[in-house]
Amino acid sequence: MRKISSLVLAAILGLTAVVQADRPNDLVKSIPNCGDSLPTKWYSGYLDVSETKSLHYVFVTSASDQAATDPVVVWFNGGPGCSSLLALFAEHGPYVFDDGEFVIKQNPEPWNKRANVLYIESPAGVGYSYAKTDEDTQHNDLSSSMDSFEAIKIFFTDFKEYLKNPLFISGESYAGIYVPYLSWQIHQYNLQADWSNDETITKYNLKGFIVGNGATDWDLDIYPAYPEVLYNFNMIDKDLLANFKQSDCHYYFNDVKKYPNKPECAAMWKTIQDARGNLNWYDLFRTEVPKGPILQAVNREGSVMIDGVEKTYTRGFTMQEYTPWAKHLLTDTPHVLGQSLSDYVNSQGLRDAFHIPSNLKGWNQCANGNSFTYHYQYEGSVWIYPILKAYNYQILVFSGDTDGAVPTLGTRRWIQNQNWEITKPWRPWVTDQQTSGYIIDYDNVKFATIHGAGHLAPQWKRKEANKLFTSFIHGEDIV
C-alpha cells in the first residue's frame, strides 16, 4: 500500500497511459460458496488516500465481450456510514443474499453485465476501510468527496487500461450527496487540467453520474415530503395533513435545519411518524420483516477467529441502526435483518479472499458513533446539478416510488424547482412488456421512477433497475 502525490500521479498517468498495470496482488481468485473461480476478474485491496487513511475497494470487471471498453462505474452506499459491500452482496453484485434468505446465490441481473463496477467503502472508518487517527474518522460532505477523488486517482494509476473508458459515479440514499460532490470534484480537476495547458496532467473521462433515491435538497427531501407521502399512501387523514400545514410545521433530516415550530406541531409530528406502524420505512408496500426465520435483537455479537485472534462484530442491523438519525424508528420491533451477510463478510474465507489485513477489526454494515463521525452540511447537493448540467454531463436520477425514507415526491419537487426545459415528456418505460416506471427528460438530465419498489430498488426490482442502469450508461434509449 502506498500514497502517490497528485503531481507524481499526473506525470505517471500522462506518460504511461498505454501501459497496462493492474494490481496482481489484489486479484480475487474465488469467494466462499461461489465455486472455485469467478466468472470475471475481481480485485480487492486498499487505496491509500493519505498516510493515515485507506479506503477498501472491490473492482468487478465486466462480463461482456466489450469489457475492455465498457464504462467504469463507481458505486457508493449511503448512510452516511454504510458499506458499499451491501450493494455488492445484496443489490447488484454477481452473487447476492436476498431478504429472508441465508445462502448466497448467483444474481441473474448483476450490474457488471456490461459495466466494470468499482465498489468503494467510504469514508474511512466504514466497513473494512480504516483510519489510523481519530481525526481521520471525522468527515463531512466536502472532505469525503476529496478522499474519494484521491481513491479514484490511485485506482486509475494502477488500472491504466481503463483510463479512457467512460466514467460514471453512482450511488443511493445519502450517496445523493456523495455522488454529485465527487462528480463536481472530478469536473473541477479536469477544468484546471484544461486551463493549465499541461499535457502531462491526466484528465478523467467523466461522462456523468447516477443517483438512486438520493438525498439532495434538505428543504424538500426526506422529512419535508414525508407527511404528504403518508397521506398519498392513505396512512394519515386529510385533516391531520391540513392542520400540520396550516400550523406551519417543518421538520428536517437529522435536524440539519432548525425551524421555530409551534407547540402543537410536536404532537402532530409524532402522530405522523407513528402512522408507519410496522411497515417497512424503506418500502411502504413491504412489511418490515421478510419471510423466514428472523434474528431477534438480543445476543447479536458475532465472532470469528482470524489468524488465532478473535474478531467481534454486530450481526445484521435493526431499522434503528440502519438509520440512526430517524428518531421515529427508535421504538421499532427488535427484528434484525442481514445477519447472514454480516457472517459472510466477516468470515475468514471472505477476508482472505479480499486481502483484508488480519489486524483489522470485524466488519459492520454501517459504522457507529464509536468509530465514525459525520458532520452534515447545510446546502445538500442540489447546487451542483445546474453546474454539471451546463457542462452537458449525462445525469440519471431514479426513484423507487414506494420509498418512505427518501420519497419520490421530494425528488420530483426539487427537480421541478430547477425549471429545466422538458425535452421528452413524462412517459412509461417497459421491461418484458410490463410498465417498469415512468421517465422524463430535461435534455441531458433524466428522472425515472421504478414502480413498486422502495429505497433499495436495485435489489427489489433487479431486472428493471439493471435495464435502466445499463441503457443509461451506454446511451441507449430507455423505452
From TrEMBL:
Class of enzymatic activity (EC top level): hydrolase
Keyword Signal belongs to the record: yes
BP terms from Gene Ontology: proteolysis
Domain of life: Eukaryota
Keywords: Carboxypeptidase, Hydrolase, Protease, Signal
Keyword Nucleus part of the UniProt annotation: no
Entry EC no(s): 3.4.16.-
Alphabetical list of PROSITE patterns matching this protein: CARBOXYPEPT_SER_SER
SUPFAM superfamilies found in the cross-reference section: alpha/beta-Hydrolases
Residues spanning the signal sequence: 1-21
GO molecular function: serine-type carboxypeptidase activity
Recorded family membership: Belongs to the peptidase S10 family.
Name of this chain's protein: Carboxypeptidase
